[in-house]
Design a protein that fits this description.
The chain is of the alpha/beta class. It is built from 24 helices and 11 strands. The longest helix has 26 residues.
């Protein structure tokens, strides 16, 4: 039996058409035409549109699932073909999230509008979510979250349990009481206020800062929204245990262990550690050993490649390096509430100050560059200077009440270099409302740019060391030449700065005032946020010179270019002598232990 044809024949048309063959013939021709065009359209969409030549053609017919190419040339996994790459485009560091691609597939019109608009934040960066928290105005912690690593106790708490081993010269256990503030001070001489005064060790910032962080109001367990990552490693306490009588392997052990631990964490991979920070209550030279010689000083923590990405807050930073930042030494005053600060400030404003200037310290006969001997001589010969000599075996220099009483009775307080650039005494004197007189810009001006005004003339007097060495400067005459109204304004500026240079009680928090901890946290967050935005914008300072780090810290917001500076001679002299600029500072760090051994500040 013969199978019936799928298409109608001419004979069938005549039978069904009732003898009208012309009409049937027209229907047959129309059917053939329709089938022909169906085949043409099928061939065009199913075959030609998928050919590479068609993809590059000038005229394209959009389909529902076809998406516009990414502006940054990112690879797309859900498109059949990639658009031609442009030579001017750089490949993105990370591919865009799959969720974003699926969202664009579901709503191609919205995706097209998004691609046409200028890109604001590239979704390819893992810290995008952290930046976006700042846009949430209803979240008081937006842009301020801190993630804290949960370190093994060997990096912090175990050191406190062995507190008697934290210093060769001092039993630090009594200074670990009251969350690191030390024992309460009695007020025999009537120079303290009723509360908030403690016998705080000058090297206790590690634990004070760490305990303040525990009370920080914007801690988070979600590192993806963190503006910065805190590493609670007691670096200062660690190195203090091993500076004397231990080999370099012992001195470096905890630092190497810490870096190894951090680099295995997913939080590290977000920015390679550039959003991490830690605190060490010692000078930077204790962590910048230059060689592998056993006789060289300190550890090499700050020279480790991974540590160079982190930010380390120290009581004295290096002018020639960019991975450490100066924060104030701790003073004896740790208020629990704003009212304690306001009462103290009012008291400092109302004091009578009979002495024009004062100095507390000892000479440095073994250091030919020290000007301390000349300062002591000038003070002794002046009837308006109060001198507290600290090399005669007396305990008055070690008495907080004696020191604070002298500062409270003086208009100006001389603050030459210590064994290194800085001294705790500078902050004690400012706490007393005494205007500091500095002789080297490394003692404060390039150190504490987060906490003190960059315009140093607002709160201090600067007399170059060379003027003292050449005996061209009479300190008494210089200070007397300052107009009384200017002195009054400077003293008011110093008193207003008091909250920024003290650490509040870690067991509480100031209500409206920002203390040294708050200022430091704000600065770190700003630093990391700026870095993240620069990365997304493709901004890179290719002209950055790390040896001039001190100059960059003096730039105002928006400035990026440095040039010659009046302080260049202060920071270039060691190199002119053919030595490394940090080697003399490391030698000074060794000498600083002589003062610590004597119990001086």
């Amino acid at each position: 039996m013969r199978r019936r044809s799928v298409l109608p024949s001419h004979h069938d048309d005549m039978e069904k058409g009732g003898g009208k063959p012309a009409s049937s013939r027209l229907c047959f021709i129309a059917t053939l035409c329709a089938m022909f065009w169906v085949l043409i359209f099928y061939f065009h969409f199913a075959v030609v549109s998928n050919e590479p030549d068609a993809q590059a053609g000038g005229v394209r017919i959009a389909r529902a699932r076809l998406q516009l190419p990414e502006p940054d040339g990112a690879a797309r996994h859900d498109m059949p073909l990639e658009p031609p790459a442009r030579a001017s485009e750089r490949p993105p560091p990370v591919t865009r999230p799959k969720e974003e691609e699926e969202e664009k597939e579901e709503n191609p019109a919205a995706a097209a509008r998004q691609e046409e608009a200028p890109p604001k934040v590239a979704a390819s960066y893992p810290f995008e979510r952290a930046l976006k928290t700042a846009e949430n105005k209803s979240d008081p912690c937006g842009g301020r979250y801190i993630y804290v690593h949960e370190l093994p106790p060997r990096f912090n708490e175990d050191m406190l349990r062995d507190c008697e081993k934290l210093s060769v010269w001092t039993n630090m256990c009594r200074f670990m009481s009251n969350d690191g503030l030390g024992p309460p001070l009695s007020d025999e001489e009537g120079v303290f206020s009723s509360t908030g005064w403690y016998g705080t060790n000058q090297f206790s910032v590690d634990v004070i800062f760490g305990n303040r962080m525990k009370q920080y109001e914007c801690l988070t367990k979600d590192s993806s929204i963190a503006a910065a990552v805190f590493v609670p490693f007691y670096a200062g306490f660690d190195i203090a245990r091993y500076l004397w009588g231990h080999n370099i392997s012992t001195r470096d052990a905890a630092s190497l262990d810490l870096v190894d631990w951090l680099m295995k964490k997913p939080e590290w991979n977000v920015m390679g550690g550039r959003d991490h920070f830690l605190v060490a209550g010692r000078i930077t030279w204790d962590f910048r050993r230059l060689t592998e010689e056993e006789s060289d000083w300190g550890s090499k923590l700050l020279f480790l490649p991974a540590a160079k990405n982190m930010s380390m807050l120290v009581v004295e930073s290096s002018p020639w390096n960019s991975n450490d930042f100066g924060i104030p030494y701790p003073t004896y005053f740790h208020p629990a509430k704003d009212a304690d600060v306001f009462l103290w400030q009012d008291r400092m404003r109302s004091l009578e100050r009979p002495w024009l200037f004062s100095f507390a310290g000892a000479p440095r006969p073994g250091d030919p560059m020290s000007i301390r001997g000349q300062l002591i001589d000038q003070c002794r010969s002046s009837s308006v200077c109060k001198l507290l000599e600290c090399d005669l075996g007396e305990s008055k220099c070690h008495s907080p009440s004696t020191i604070m009483k002298m500062f409270q009775s003086s208009l100006f307080c001389l603050q030459p270099q210590g064994d290194s650039y800085t001294r705790r005494s500078a902050f004690d004197s400012m706490l007393a409302g005494c205007i500091p007189v500095f002789f080297h810009p490394g003692s404060a001006y390039v150190q504490y740019t987060w906490h003190l005004p960059k315009n140093y003339t607002r709160y201090s007097v600067f007399i170059p060391e060379d003027d003292i060495r050449a005996k061209d400067a009479s300190i008494e005459e210089r200070l007397k030449s300052i107009h009384p109204d200017v002195v009054k304004n400077m003293r008011e500026e110093v008193i207003n700065l008091i909250p920024r240079v003290i650490y509040a009680d870690p067991r509480s928090k100031l209500e409206t005032l920002k203390d040294a901890f708050d200022v430091s946290i704000e600065a770190i967050i700003n630093k990391v946020t700026k870095l993240r935005r620069d990365i997304m914008a493709g901004r890179e300072d290719k002209d950055f010179i790390e040896e001039n780090s001190w100059k960059y810290s003096l730039l105002e917001d928006g400035q990026r270019t440095i040039g010659p500076h009046e302080w260049d001679p202060f920071f270039s002299k060691p190199k002119e002598k053919g030595g490394d600029p940090s080697s003399s500072a490391a030698e000074a760090a060794k000498n600083s232990w002589k003062s610590e051994q004597r119990g001086q500040n």
